[in-house]
Amino acid sequence: MSRLLDIKNLSVSFVSGEETVRAVTDVSFDLCEDEVLTLVGETGCGKSIIAHAISGLLPPEALVSGEIRYKEKDLQSIPEEERVLLRGCEIGIVLQNPSRALNPLYTIGHQIRETILRHTEKSKEESNRMVAGALRRMGFSDPGIEMKRYPFESSGGMNQRFVIASSTILSPDLLIADEPTTGLDRSRIQDVITEFERIMEEEEMAIILITHDLAVARRLADRIGIMYAGEVVEMGDANRIFEEPYHPYTKGLFGSLPENGCVPIPGVSPPMSRIVSGCRFHPRCGKRTAVCERDHPQLGMIDDRYVRCHLCHSQ
Questions:
Q1: 241, 224 in Cβ contact below 8 A?
Q2: pLDDT tens, 149-159?
Q3: Core-most of 149, 168, 259, 288, by most CB within 10 Å?
Q4: Is 43 exposed, middle or buried (0-12, 13-18, 19+ CB in 10 A)?
Q5: Through-space distance between the first and last CA atoms of the chain, rounded to whole angstroms
C-alpha cells in the first residue's frame, strides 16, 4: 500500500491571555491507502485538534508547526481555495458536533445532494438516488422522508448519521471521523460500524477514526494510537496493543473497561497550559521513578510498536 498521509512533528498551541495551551505536541504518524488508524484517549488529549489540523479547520489564532503532507502536498502551504476543494471530495470529514456541519436553513437532502453536485457532473436525479442509497445504508428505512427534514427537526444522533452519509457519499480517499458514534444508541452505533465495515471491504479509503469507544476502536482499527496530554504515548498494530499494552496509561485505559473490572486511573490529566516536567503521565503512574519525574521520555520503538515510557525502554 502506498502512503497517503504523512504527519511529522505536528504541534498545535493556543495563546489565551498570559497562558499558552499546548494542545498537541510533536505528533508524527503516516497513513497508507486502505488503512484504518484509530486515535483514542481521554477528552482533551488532543485527538480532535489533530483532525482539525489535517482538515484545515483550526481557528486562525492556532499556532501550528510541523508538516502535514497529503499525496505529497503540503496542506499548510496550498491556497485555501484548493484545500476547500479537497474537503468533501478527496477528504471526507465527520465532525464531533454535527450542528457545525449542517446548515439549519436547508433540508438534509439538499445539503447532501450539494456535495455531489459541487464535485461531480451528475444530474439532480442521479444525485437524489445516491443520497437515498447513502441514507438507507445509515439505517433510515424511508430516505425520502429524511431528505425533506431540516436539521432542527432531527435528533443529534440522526444528524450525526446524516453527516456520515454526506462525508462518505463520494468515496473520498481519506475519511476523518471525529467521534462518529457520539450521541447514538447501541443499535445506531451498529449501523455506523456496519457502514464503516462496508467501506473497508468495498472501497479503497483510508480512515482516521477518533473515538473514546474502545470497543469500536478494537473492531475497526488496523493501527491504534493512544494519546495522553497532547502526545502519542503508544502506537502500533491494534490487535497486538489490545492483547498486550505496554505503556502504563494504555494499561490503565484498558483496565477501566467493564470487562476488565472498571478500575479507574487515579488522578486527572494535567491542564494543557501547565504541563508537568518529565513524563506527563508520571503524577498518575504507580510505577514512576525519579527519572520519570525529571526527564521527558521520547517516543521510541519497542518490539512491534512505538512507546513513550522510560520504564518500558529500560526493561
A1: yes
A2: 999 999 888 89
A3: 168
A4: exposed
A5: 34
- pLDDT score of 1: 67
Record the cell numbers describing residue 167, joined without a space. 462525508
Q: DSSP assignment of 149-193, as one string?
A: --GGGS-HHHHHHHHHHHHHTT--SEEEEESTTTT--HHHHHHHH
C-alpha cell at 72: 505529497
**Ordered strands of the 63-70 beta sheet:** 19-32, 3-16, 63-70, 73-74
**Which domains, and CATH codes, for the chain?**
3-246 (3.40.50.300)
Instruction: Over range 267-296, report the average pLDDT.
Output: 92
Would you place residue 288 in the very low, low, confident or very high pLDDT band (cuts 50, 70, 90)? Answer: very high
Read off the DSSP letter of residue 88.
Answer: T
Cell 484498558 belongs to residue: 254
